[in-house]
Amino acid sequence: MTLFASFKTTLEMIKFEHTVFALPFALLSAILASGGVPNKSKLLWILLAMVGARSAAMAFNRIADWSIDAENPRTRMRALPARHLSLTFAICFTVGSSLLFIFSASKLNPLCLWLSVPVLLILLSYSYTKRFTIYSHLFLGLCLGLAPLGAWIAVRGDVQVTPILLTLIVLLWTAGFDIIYACQDVDFDRQKNLFSIPEHFGIGTALRVSLGLHALMLLFLFLLFLIEGLSWISLVGILMVGCLLGYEHSLVRPNDLSRVNAAFFTVNGYISLLLLLAVGLDKLI
Q1: Distance of alpha carbon 53 from alpha carbon 118, whole angstroms
Q2: Which of 138, 150, 170, 245 has its CA 20 to 30 A from that of 213?
Q3: What residue ranges of the chain have pLDDT lower than 70?
Q4: What number does CATH give the domain 3-284?
Q5: Which residues are CB-neighbours of 219 under 8 A, at least 6 positions away?
Q6: Among positive and negative, which fits the CA dihedral 83, 18, 102, 117?
Q7: 179-203 confidence digits (pLDDT tens)
Q8: 20 in Cβ contact with 273 (< 8 Å)
C-alpha cells in the first residue's frame, strides 16, 4: 500500500470528517473569548491543535481496540482488524498527530504548551475506560469538552465561567449521544466483560439517562445565554438545538436501533454547527 493510500485509509478509519462534532464548540469558545472575530494566527493554531488532538485520540483508540474490534461483527471490517492498514503506520500517524497538537499548543501561549501533554494523556487514556467503568461515556464527553476550554485559554490565557460552562455542555451532549451509540453493542459488551451504561442498566434505562443528560445540556445552554447576555439569535439557535435533540431521541427505541447512525452522526453534526452559527452571528453582527 502506498503512503498516500495508507494516509487516506487512516483518515477514513478515524472518521476525520467527524471533527465537526467538537470543532464548532472550540470556534464558538474562541469567538466568545475574543468578543468577536478571533486573531487569525491564533485561529489557525487552534484549528491545527484540534485536528492533531482528535486525530491522535481516534487513531490511538483504534490501535487500543483493534483486537476487540476484530471480534465484534459491527466493527470487524475496520481498517486495522481487516488488515487494510498496518499497525506500524497507525502508530506513526498517532505520534505525528500528537506532535502536531503539542507544537500547535506551543504557538499559542505558554499555558497551552504546559497543558498540552496532560491533555493528550487524558485523550489517549479514554480508550481503556470501557474496560473498567460504565462511565466511559462521561470520560469521552470530558475529552471533547476540553476543546472549548482549550480554545478559550488559547485566546485569553485564563479560565472563567464561560469556558467551564461550554465544557459541561459538550460533556453532557457527548455522553448522551455516546450512550445511544453504545446501545448497539450491549450483547457483545456483556460477552467480553466490557462496561457501558446500556450494558449495565439495559437499553431502555440507558436511553432515559441519555435524554436526561441532553435535558441538562439544554439547561446549561440557557445559563450560558444569560451569563453572556446573548440576543434572540442565540436563543432561537438554542431552541432549535432542543428540537434536534428531541428528534434524535425519537429515532431510537429500546426495540429498534436501526436508525442509531442517523441519530449519532447526522443530527449531532447539525447541532454543533447550528450553535456555532447562532452564537457566531450573535457576536459578529
Answers
A1: 12
A2: 150
A3: 1, 4, 7, 11, 16-20, 262-264
A4: 1.10.357.140
A5: none
A6: negative
A7: 999 999 999 999 999 999 999 999 9
A8: yes
Give me Rg for the CA atoms of the chain: 19
Question: What CA–CA distance (Å, rounded) separates 108 from 263?
Answer: 35
Q: Which residues contact 258 (CB under 8 A, 6 or more apart)?
A: none
**Rounded Cα–Cα distance for residues 179 and 172 (Å):** 11
List the domain boundaries for the chain. Answer: 3-284
What is the grid cell recorded at 41? Answer: 494566527
* Residues in a beta bridge with 253: 256
- How far apart are the C-alpha atoms of 231 and 236, rounded to whole Å? 9
- Is the Cα dihedral 90, 55, 129, 106 positive or negative? positive
Residue with cell 482549550: 150
- Give residue 256's identity as a one-letter amino acid code: D
**What CA–CA distance (Å, rounded) separates 105 from 116?**
6
Which cell numbers in the block locate residue 243? Answer: 428540537
**DSSP state string for the chain:** --HHHHHHHHHHHTTGGGGGTTHHHHHHHHHHHHTSSPPHHHHHHHHHHHHHHHHHHHHHHHHHTHHHHHH-TTTTTSTTTTTSS-HHHHHHHHHHHHHHHHHHHHTT-HHHHHHHHHHHHHHHHGGGGGGT-TTHHHHHHHHHHHHHHHHHHHHHSS--HHHHHHHHHHHHHHHHHHHHHHGGGHHHHHHTT---HHHHH-HHHHHHHHHHHHHHHHHHHHHHHHHTT--HHHHHHHHHHHHHHHHHHHT-BTTB-TTHHIIIIIIHHHHHHHHHHHHHHHHH-
